[in-house]
Design brief:
Layout (H helix, E strand, L loop, with lengths): L1 H26 L20 E3 L4 E3 L1 H4 L1 E4 L6 E6 L5 E5 L10 E4 L4 E5 L4 E5 L3 E6 L2 E6 L2 H7 L3
């Protein structure tokens, strides 16, 4: 009798726990890759919306990688087709208005409207500055051809 009662209680608990997990799973399914943002970009696949390209891009594929001094963070600069604008993707809190830079002269290559973000060239590197943060990329023939071409 005790064995039958214990078996019945165990069976009831098992059925109840299965029913609860089954109903939770069917009520709110979580789909992998179901993270499309307002612009249709899938963040889980590495896509972000580029204002100057007017499409979803992977900044790490299409942009020029800048890094901070200890290589712990990267920023990416994507250029417009005519190279008159640059869009910056930073690992820091920014607004889209701060991240669109306009082409200037040779020394100070790009600057945003608020004068809070700029890209300048030095002898050996390009420097992306935002407030007190700096990201750099070493000057190479490829990078020079992108950032210095008119």
């Amino acid at each position: 009798m005790k064995t039958t009662l214990l078996s019945l209680i165990t069976f009831s608990i098992f059925i109840y726990s299965c029913k609860t997990s089954f109903s939770e799973a069917t009520e709110s399914p979580q789909m992998v890759g179901n993270d499309t943002d307002a612009n249709g970009c899938k963040g889980s696949a590495g896509y972000v919306y580029s204002v100057i390209k007017a499409k979803c891009i992977r900044a790490f594929e299409e942009g020029i990688e800048f890094h901070n001094k200890d290589f712990s963070q990267s920023a990416y600069v994507v250029l417009s087709d005519d190279r008159q604008e640059a869009e910056v993707f930073l690992p820091l809190e920014t607004t889209i208005n701060e991240c669109i830079l306009q082409r200037l002269d040779d020394k100070q290559l790009y600057l945003n409207k608020h004068r809070t973000m700029e890209i300048v060239k030095s002898e050996n590197e390009f420097i992306l500055s935002y407030k007190k943060e700096q990201f750099v990329v070493r000057r190479t023939e490829d990078v020079d051809s992108l950032l210095l071409a008119r």
